[in-house]
């Protein structure tokens, strides 16, 4: 009996969480315009989606931003993590504390902060500010996913490499990076997912008509319900879900 | 033999903890030198100074008459065998062993026979494709050895490389280490806290305690003529007694006067008296210089180890004839076997 209650409770929780998404996906295949009634199965909104220039350009920007962000913040994050790992405990704790702030901070604070900063610096809002903002908020996640691997690495490994004649940079590329590779991959994957997923920070730091999928969906939704949004959201959901599953599989394999 | 490595007046502290104090040391070409001392006495730090992983606060590291104190590890002609966990887990055995040669851009055609040769040397032919974590601890250390030796270093530094192995494997590896050192004819600087290991393997031993070199000498010298009570105790179980050197050849301890062979002490100087357990003779009560009672008697395989209480101390005695517990016995010691030591004397003191 109690088992049944537990199951039911779980079902309820997941129901609340996933019902909207399931409804959205189902209605993305609806022939009619409204979410109120089911007018029959159709791929019409997917077709319209793929011929809508505005949407395609947003998808392009989203992936462009995510790709550049992933590459840059992975490099910065990995080097940063390697840089802080040999510090003494106290200093490392302080740096890590600072690193945590963007992670725990509400997105909106980060977003407004970046917006104000760009204003002060007199930057033109657009693709560049957008990418800079995404790099800024994803780097800490990369650092956090690389550090545990670095901590796990015995100090005798890089020392052995140097002992065998490897210069510090050869030690980095031939020993340290291969060792922490799993951490680098999950950090990169996380940066990519977070970048695709982000709305708040993108909304405040983009401009010049550069839209990402999430900011476009937001502005479309304000103009009135457009079933293309359902189709687009469904696709985005599937992509992010896929990335998350990939990420979990990786971490499971690593630990 | 020529001096290959020299440490001159090395001082090293971590924070306000002084780890090495005035280390002066010469390492000869092609010798098997062991640094022996209890855990935490600074052995690893000395090796790391030679290997280039630490720089001294003051003093110099000299290699073949050149000052290499500031030369980084990757440019030094020495290789290290670390205590453990030093094989690269993302590479297989072959690639681990080939690592140093690939760094030096040696052509692959030349690498292959050299890896083969090294795996032969450490008796692990056929392990090329194995992954590091599929190897036992002993095999890992042998691969680490092959990986270090393939670079043909002039000196191999070994930091308790057998410390993580069980006793049987340890003995086998000791034999193998000695064989390899002889075959290749290179200098080994070996670190251990195991006095038996040090005595078996070394040409020379340096006994270190709390960052100060206590004594340097051949295993026999150190075993037979320990310079102070610390070395005597560390190198083998010993009876260490407080004594007074009254005049030449006359020492008293345990409340009795004994004849000894030592001279040149101050009159009535307080000294440490060291007597090895195998040098204490058990005789009848009347014949003994000291009288005591057997407290315990354990069979140790070759001899019996007994604890015998006199009125002042408990003596550790090794004998092939067992005595029963509670039995009153007499003890005596030959003058030759009474070792008198100045309190706190260390290597180099007599030159002052
Ligand atoms: N990097 C370091 N930072 C602080 N203290 C250290 C460091 N390395 C060694 N020590 C200290 O120096 C002393 C000697 O260490 P070590 O040379 O490793 O001794 P051993 O190898 O003889 O056991 C120890 O007390 C150890 O705690
Ligand atoms: Mg050590």
Can you walk me through this structure?
The complex is a heterodimer of chains A (255) and B (352). Chain A is an all-alpha fold. Chain A has two domains: 1-42; 53-254, Orthogonal Bundle (MetI-like fold). Chain A has eleven helices and no strands. Chain A has helices spanning 2-27, 44-51, 53-84, 89-104, 107-121, 127-152, 156-163, 168-197, 200-205, 213-223, 227-254. In chain A, helix 7 packs across helix 8 (168-197). Chain A is globular and about 70 Å long. The two termini of chain A are 36 Å apart. In chain A, 35% of the residues are buried. Chain B is an alpha+beta fold and 352 residues long. A six-stranded mixed β-sheet of chain B has the order 6-7-8-3-9-10, with helices on both faces. Chain B has a five-stranded antiparallel β-sheet with strand order 13-12-11-14-20, covered by helices on one side. In chain B, helix 3 crosses helix 4 (137-149). The mean pLDDT of chain B is 90. At the A-B interface, helix 7 and helix 8 of A face helix 2 and helix 4 of B. Magnesium ion (MG) binds at residues 43-44, 160 of chain B.
Low-confidence stretches of chain B: none
What is the count of DSSP helices of chain B, taking H or I runs of 4+ residues? 8
CATH homology-level superfamily of the largest domain in chain B: P-loop containing nucleotide triphosphate hydrolases
Class inferred from helices and paired strands of chain A: mainly alpha
CATH class of the largest domain in chain B: Alpha Beta
State the total count of DSSP E strands of chain A.
Answer: 0
Order of strands in the sheet with most strands of chain B: 6-7-8-3-9-10
Annotated CATH topology of the largest domain in chain B: Rossmann fold
Beta-strand proportion of chain B? 25-35%
* SSE series of chain B: EEEHEEEHHHEHEHEEHHEEEEEEEEEE
User: What proportion of the residues of chain A form beta strands (DSSP E)?
Assistant: under 5%
Characterize the largest beta sheet of chain A: strand count, sense, and whether it forms a barrel: none
Shape of chain A: globular
